[in-house]
Design goal:
4-stranded antiparallel beta sheet, single chain
Amino acid sequence: MAVAVASSSVSNLTDHLTRIPLFSGCSRKDLQRLARAADELTIPAGTQLTREGDVGREAFVILDGEAEVTRDGRVLATLSQGDHVGELSLLDGGPRTATVTATTELQVLVLSTAAFNGVLDEIPTLAHKLLVSLAHRLRAAESVTHEH
């Protein structure tokens, strides 16, 4: 199912990545490195990208389409272009914290653990943006917890 991004399409993917907020601030060279390290896949609607409790082996960035995040059967969020999932398990080696299911056909960028770690090592701007994004998620989760 995984198809590596061909070098001829690295330029097209790089252009697409420039429109995703997570990658703002990254140089074109950084985005080309990311495009070469990742696989671009089409995921059919109904497919689970992650399953709560499973070991994580990849992270995903949604390029197009929508997905639903659930935990314990409860819908937590709807994800769309520019959103990313799966990185927490790659960072700490822990189990997936939620199930993410494609609600439409998805175009995603997939990074294996090795590619993810390599990209973070080589692109400090991306590592910083990812940390900020995770901090926002944590604060949002704490806010919801305090409301109940």
